[in-house]
Specification:
Blueprint (H helix, E strand, L loop, with lengths): L1 E6 L11 H4 L4 H15 L2 E6 L3 H10 L6 E5 L8 H10 L3 E5 L21 E4 L4 H10 L6
Parallel strand pairs: 1-2, 1-3, 3-4, 4-5
Amino acid sequence: MKLLIINGPNLNMLGVREPEIYGKRDYAALCGFIRNCAEELGAECEIFQSNHEGEIVDKIQSALGKFDGIVINPAAYTHTSVAILDALKAVALPAVEVHISDVSAREPFRRISYAGMACVKTFAGYGFDGYRMAMELLAGGERK
């Protein structure tokens, strides 16, 4: 199982940006957490982060034929990017959306998820554990 983990804008600022919402752990801690989860599942993973919508679209497109599934935290692009939605639909890989915070309990505009329309499930408000839940879902829940 090869998983592509995509993180959108400002996730590189974890630990600095609004720690009361996103927590005090930094992006390096998130990447370490994801790698440990992949190892526990017996899966390979590649982690990608960009603040640029086109780079995220390019990365999704490049996943075709190389990965078995995508875990995506589109961050602010969740609520605005039809391009990311279309890229996810184009590659037609199983994808799971993740948000560290509970976006449904925040500002009304955050309740719309374009990317989520192409995902099999969304995990929001579970902190880093949402990534584990998404990876387990894509890997069939099996730990090796």
